[in-house]
Amino acid sequence: MRDPKDVLCSAYHHCVKAAAAFDYQGTFQEFVGHFLNGHVESGDYWDFNRGYLENKDGFNILYITYEDLSRDKITCIKKISEFLGYKSISIEQIESVDKPTRFESMVGTQRPISGDNVKGKVGQNKEMLSESQRLELIKQTKSKFDGLGDDIVVPSCYFSESI
After folding, report:
1. CA–CA separation, 136 vs 126, rounded Å?
2. Would you give the DSSP letter of residue 107?
3. Can the peptide bond before residue 4 be classed as cis, meaning omega within 30 degrees of 0?
4. Is 60 exceeded by the pLDDT of residue 115?
5. Is the alpha carbon torsion for 134, 135, 141, 144 positive or negative?
């Protein structure tokens, strides 16, 4: 899962950079509206994530956020390994997963998506969204994730101006 404010910015860059596939001709402001209404390639961000968070069928799901991966990827790799049932993972194995999955290693591998606007960093939304757009996304997140239950934890940064 990833902060919806950053998902919006990333999705916009994706649509603009892969113009041959999407032919998006609108403005960023228009794209914000499309995202808020769930009218983007990946559909409604909140409905998609809410389905996993509710996990009504009780599937065995490991929840990791993009923010956690960005902050402490090694710990996340260990968590994934444990979730998959491996009792231990060596430093060499961790490095063999870590190095090729670094954002810097992957930039440009998804043609034609590359360039200066491809950042993949936490908090990129602060450079692109106005305060009112950020607040609208926070409001939508609170509304759509309301009533999930006390045992479901959505990172607080998704509901705030932090990050």
Report:
1. 14
2. T
3. no
4. no
5. negative
